Amino acid sequence: MQGVTRVRVEWDGPHNRTAMGGDTPAAARPEVDAFELAGTGMLVTDEAGLILRANRTYCDLVGRREPELVGRAFLHAFPKPAQPLVRRTLKAALGPGALPMPSHWSLVRRDGRSVAVLLTIRATGDARPLAVITVTDVTALAATEARLTAVLEEQRLILEHAQVGILFSRSGRVMRANAACARMFGYPEPELIGLATTALVPAIDGTEPTGDEPWHAELEARNRDGTAFWCEVDGQPFSAPGEPVQSIWTLRDVTERRRAQEALARALLDQRAILDNASVGIVFSRDRTVQRCNRKAEELFGYAPGELIGKPGRALYPDDEAYAAVGQQAGPVLAAGESFQTELRLRRKDGSLFWCRLSAKAVNPQAPHQETIWIGEDVTAQHAAQEALVRARDELEQRVAERTRDLADKNAELETEVAERRYAEERLQVRGERLLYHRNQLMALARRDRADLGESLAEVLATACTTLRLDRASYWRMLPDGRGVRCELVHRTPRPSGSIRK
Predict the structure, then answer these.
(1) 474 contacts: CB under 8 Å, gap ≥ 6
(2) DSSP 8-state code for residue 224
(3) Least buried of 10, 63, 180, 210, by fewest C-beta within 10 Å?
(4) Which residues 6+ apart lie within 8 Å of 394 measured at CB?
(5) How far apart are CA 457 and CA 223, in angstroms?
(6) CA distance linking residue 198 with residue 185, whole number of Å
(7) How far apart are CA 32 and CA 219, in angstroms?
């Protein structure tokens, strides 16, 4: 060992030590000082393993003074199970041609604590061989190695049980990979070692990332059978002084996530196309504030593109009462997961009002205030048409009522006229029957003797005038052939009252 002076010591008894190479102890003092001042524990034993000399560092290491150690077996500081092996090691080290071989052992201090040491045994090579033993305290080193071993074991467990692929590379070659990485690429773990990283991820140029900054990307990777899949790659370069740059790569198969993102992007594009081309206004609100809307909604309320975003819902209603009423009506319906529908007047940016058919649906019924979808349609024209239709119906009903009254009056008049006509017809029938009777009487009289004709005619005439109440004179004459009579009617001029008939 460098910096340590070899000392040859002759043992004549427990109190008589003479350093070989001088006649007095003073002659050996420089060597004794170097032995004593060595920072590593040192002791000298004979071939039987009895301690002849021990320096201060070794005494402090085992917790004993030198007089306690001299003359005792070197094996005393080792645990009993290890003592036979230590004896054989000492014997082998003192054999001819033996080379010093450092080895790790545990010593037991006087207080019972164990101390990890590195032991090196060298023979002096004299006729009476002695052993110079160097004992180095490596307790701290052993603790460090234990911690390092624990860290390495943790690292091994992490690599073996990690759900993502982990790969170590150097100069573009795989140095180590875990099981998840091997499964991802379809290789047995041993076949990955030494494989070029470009065989796994062609987009990597085969070199390590430059600088100390982490590297992230989503690249197309290839399986062992050539199947392509999307891989999320995170790289972190690291290096030790004097060594090539190395990298640790974390790889995740994100094919499904990529497909889901593409499907979501397509759905968003479809949704945007629907929103932009919808014939109705669509508004997404949260906490009663407009979060987003389509262009039709902006046109419906008279706002410029993007101007409606962030507006409170109250700005779209004519007054606070209407706004509060809709909230009271819609709240329970939306909380029940149902669709709310109504028609009311809303306000445009310029203050004008219009009729709107409003539909609403909560995205999450458990929290309807978080996000609600409102669909509005301008139905002002429909309301105007409906109002015109109501007015036309009212006018028609009024006209029908008037016509009904007129028809009732006409019907009453017709019924009166029919009654009068029926009465007149009845009277005419009675008169006809009477005339038929008198005709029959006249025909009977015509067959009477002519001698009785005048008298009969006068009687008939009187009867006829009385019956018919005629104010005219009738003159009846027998026809020359005697087969009939002729009646001449002469109207009488009414006499003035009090006149005398001549």
Answers:
(1) 461, 464, 465, 487, 488, 489, 490
(2) T
(3) 210
(4) none
(5) 147
(6) 12
(7) 71
Concatenate the DSSP letters of all residues of 282-348 into one string.
EEEEETTEEEEE-HHHHHHHT--TTTTTT-BGGGGSSSHHHHHHHHHHHHHHHHTTPPEEEEEEEE-
The closest of 336, 327, 331 to 366, measured between CA atoms, is 336
DSSP run (H or E) holding 434: helix 380-446
Which residues are CB-neighbours of 80 under 8 A, at least 6 positions away? none
**CA torsion angle 46 47 51 53 (round to 10):** 30
Place of tokens 């001088």: 22
Q: Are strands 173-177 and 215-222 parallel, antiparallel or unpaired?
A: unpaired
What was the pLDDT predicted at 17?
41
> Amino acid identity, residue 206?
G
Q: Which two tokens stand for residue 40?
A: 């590593």
DSSP letter assigned to residue 483: S
DSSP label of 164: S
pLDDT at site 346:
92
For 211, which DSSP code? S
Q: Which residue has the tokens 């902006």?
A: 298
**What secondary structure, in 3-state letters, does 29-97 show?**
HHHHHHHHHCCCEEEEECCCCEEEEECHHHHHHHCCCHHHHCCCEHHHHCCHHHHHHHHHHHHHHCCCC
Residue type, 156: R
SS3 label, residue 482: coil
Give pLDDT tens digits for 408-449.
Answer: 888 888 888 888 888 888 888 888 888 888 878 777 766 665
Average pLDDT score over the chain: 79
Mean pLDDT of 467-479: 54
What is the pLDDT confidence band of residue 303, given thresholds at 50, 70 and 90? very high
Span between the terminal Cα atoms of the chain, in Å: 202
Answer whether 0.70 is exceeded by the pTM: no
- Report pLDDT for 347: 92
Residues 6+ apart with CB under 8 A from 5: 30, 31, 34, 35
Phi, psi of 383 (to 5 degrees): -65, -40
Whether residue 55 contacts residue 38, with contact meaning beta carbons closer than 8 Å, is answered with yes
